[in-house]
From TrEMBL:
The keyword Nucleus does not apply. It comes from the Eukaryota. This is Leucine rich repeat containing 45. SUPFAM superfamilies: RNI-like. Gene3D superfamilies: Ribonuclease Inhibitor. It holds the Pfam family LRR_6. Keywords: Coiled coil, Cytoplasm, Cytoskeleton. The lineage of its organism: Eukaryota, Metazoa, Chordata, Craniata, Vertebrata. GO terms for cellular component: centrosome; plasma membrane. Residues 293-607 form a coiled coil. It is found in: Cytoplasm, Cytoskeleton, Microtubule organizing center, Centrosome. The keyword Metal-binding does not apply.
Length: 660
């Protein structure tokens, strides 16, 4: 505030101008009020020099948001200087220029409200045209007050051109002007193109009531349109947020499933590697044991005790081999089952993706149907506006014809009263003139009736177009339903194919089992061959018993050593058994986790099915709403038709029609 005062005094000194005491006093008062952002100079007689200084100071001012200059007796030059400064100002929100007697052409830099009451702007046509051009290009002004400005129908036409181009003005006050019937028509025409003006005051302008009602209807339509736009924007925002949340949740679930599947795959790979390593170690141990058995048989060919021990070892080793083979078969079965489970999980994931794609397609179809409904509503609204415009024009034309008839009747009466004493020739001339005027009026009435018939034909055409559009919409709905049915059939066929694939995998597993049975039979045959070889060895032992008598002591020592080695090997085998039991426990834990994952997959599928059912319910609700809207529009069209028919029957045209 103090900076504004200092700059004002400095510029006055530089320009050699005496600073006005009234302006300084107002600046001092504004400085004493804390938090004040208003420059109040109302009722002060401000000179042109002071206006130039104030305009220069306001160019760079960032304090005042309201400038009040009403009743200041400003001249045109002073107003131009002030407004030149305000054009580069970005902080002033409200400018009050009440009772300025000259035109303001530079006042469209404000961002909210402009008050121009009692300024006689309509008296200066050129300046008012420039003002309207500025209003058309303005993109920030929301409220404009033009009361008591002597605006005629020409100024109203220029103002309507500006309103057609303006897209930010919301409130306009035109009370107590001279707009008249023509200006009211032009304003009504402008309201058909302007979609943002919500409030328009038109009292005291000599405008007929029907045009005022039409203007009010257009204002109501604008208000309804903006409310529907706000509601649609809020709904779209809510739906977009819900869709985004659903997408995030589904992505998180998918990522968690993929992580668990990767972990299971890693664990299964590790377990298979460990099992393969251990199987290799066992095979090596078996090979070592076989070599030891061969060495023992070579060394202890002469001893029965050594042969008995070797038979026991061979029998134990055979049992261990059978156990290991059974365990291998079990591990292979489990691995095959786990692979099948993984395949089923992949199939389930593909099904989930297909279901999500179908949901997106259904949503897109819903959006398309909503857009088509909106376009149909807009067309119906435009037809209603055309009907109202035509009815208003018919009313105006009827009023004009009635006024002309009354004026001509009055003239004829006055002429008859004044010319009673005149000659018979003048009376004949007047009668001829009346007949010609009546003929002209009858011709005009016939033309109006022809126009009415044309309008009725246009109404019938519009109704036919609406009926065709309804049929097209119903056909499109049928097509959408057929597409949905086809997609369901395709989904069923895909499920049948999946069942076939599962059956094929089952057959393959059965074939694998048969192959394993064949391998087991081959192993049994090999065991029989080994038993035959053992019988041959026994025979050889019986033959060599005589040679073993002298070497019993050496054999006893060797037997004790062999027993120690066998005990060590048995300890190793027991340790390996404990490790295998740990592996079995891990496998059981993995199977439990797989069961948990399968339950989670089932729950996710159930959630998807519930979402699909909810979307179908929404579709049904939307179809019901569309049907209701169509029925309402049909009722409105029937009401409008009945109203037009009643109006035409009750209008003077119905009385003139029999006189054809």
């Amino acid at each position: 505030m103090e900076d504004f005062r200092r700059s004002y005094l400095r510029l006055c000194k530089e320009g050699g101008i005496d600073a006005q005491e009234s302006v300084l006093a107002q600046l001092h008062d504004a400085r004493t009020v804390t938090g004040s952002c208003r420059l109040d100079l109302r009722g002060q007689s401000i000179t042109v020099d002071t206006c130039s200084v104030l305009g220069r100071v306001l160019q760079s001012d960032a304090v005042f948001t309201e400038v009040l200059l009403s009743d200041c007796m400003l001249s045109e030059e002073g107003v131009k200087l002030l407004l030149n400064g305000l054009c580069s100002n970005t902080t002033v929100k409200v400018l009050d220029l009440k009772k300025i007697l000259q035109m303001l052409t530079y006042c469209l830099c404000l961002s909210w409200r402009l008050v121009l009451e009692w300024n006689a702007l309509g008296m200066w046509e050129e300046g008012f045209g420039v003002f309207c051009e500025g209003l058309a290009s303005n993109t920030s002004l929301a409220q404009l007050d033009l009361r008591n400005n002597q605006i005629n129908h020409q100024g109203a036409a220029e103002l309507c051109i500006a309103l057609k181009r303006n897209s930010t003005l919301q409130e306009l006050d035109l009370r107590w002007n001279n707009i008249g019937l023509l200006g009211g028509r032009s304003i009504l025409e402008a309201m058909q193109q302007n979609r943002t003006l919500n409030k328009l005051e038109m009292a005291g302008n000599n405008i007929p009531s029907d045009t005022l009602r039409a203007i009010e209807q257009s204002m109501n339509h604008n208000a309804d349109r903006q409310s529907t736009l706000r509601e649609s924007r809020s709904r779209t925002q809510v739906l977009s947020k819900e869709i985004q949340l659903l997408k995030e949740e589904k992505s998180r679930q998918f990522l968690s499933l993929m992580e668990t599947i990767d972990r299971q795959k890693d664990e299964m790979g590790r377990s298979s590697r460990n099992s393969s390593i251990r199987l290799g170690q066992l095979q090596e141990v078996l090979s070592e044991q076989k070599s030891s058995v061969n060495s023992l048989t070579a060394k202890l060919q002469m001893t029965e005790a050594a042969l008995a021990l070797s038979e026991q070892k061979a029998h134990d080793l055979g049992e261990l081999l059978t156990r290991f083979k059974l365990e291998k078969a079990e591990l292979r079965d489990r691995q095959s089952r786990e692979i099948q489970k993984e395949q089923e999980e992949a199939k389930l994931l593909k099904e989930v993706n297909s279901v999500s794609e179908k949901n997106l397609q259904l949503r897109n179809k819903l959006e398309e149907t909503e857009r088509r409904c909106k376009t149909q509503q807009d067309q119906i609204f435009e037809l209603k506006q055309e009907l109202t415009n035509t009815t208003a024009e018919l009313k105006l034309r009827l009023a004009q014809t009635e006024e002309r008839l009354e004026m001509e009747k009055r003239r004829s009466k006055q002429a008859l009263e004044d010319m009673d004493g005149l000659r018979q020739k003048e009376v004949d001339h007047l009668t001829r003139h009346q007949e010609e005027s009546e003929r002209a009026l009858q011709e005009r009435i016939l033309k109006l009736e022809g126009q009415r018939i044309q309008l009725e034909e246009e109404l019938s055409r519009v109704k036919a177009s609406l009926v065709t559009e309804r049929a097209q919409a119903e056909e499109e709905l049928g097509k959408v339903r057929a597409q949905v049915r086809l997609e369901e059939q395709q989904h069923l066929t895909s499920l049948e194919e999946k069942l076939r694939a599962v059956r094929q995998s089952r057959d393959e597993s059965q074939n694998h089992c048969t192959h394993q049975k064949q391998t087991i039979a081959e192993l049994h045959a090999k065991v029989g061959q080994q038993s035959i070889e053992m019988d041959t060895l026994r025979r050889r032992i019986d033959e060599l018993q005589q040679d073993l008598a002298g070497k019993e002591q050496e054999k006893v020592a060797e037997v004790t050593r062999v027993r120690v080695e066998l005990q060590e090997q048995i300890g190793h085998l027991q340790a390996e058994r404990t490790a295998q039991s740990g592996l079995k426990e891990k496998i059981a834990a993995l199977e439990r986790e797989m069961k948990v994952l399968s339950t989670a997959h089932r729950e996710a599928l159930l959630d998807k099915e519930s979402e699909i059912s909810s979307l179908l319910e929404r579709l049904r609700i939307r179809e019901g709403e569309i049907q209701r809207i169509r029925e309402d529009e049909a009722q409105r069209a029937s009401f409008l038709q009945n109203a037009i028919l009643t109006y035409v029957q009750g209008s003077p045209l119905a009385h003139f029609s029999p006189k054809k």
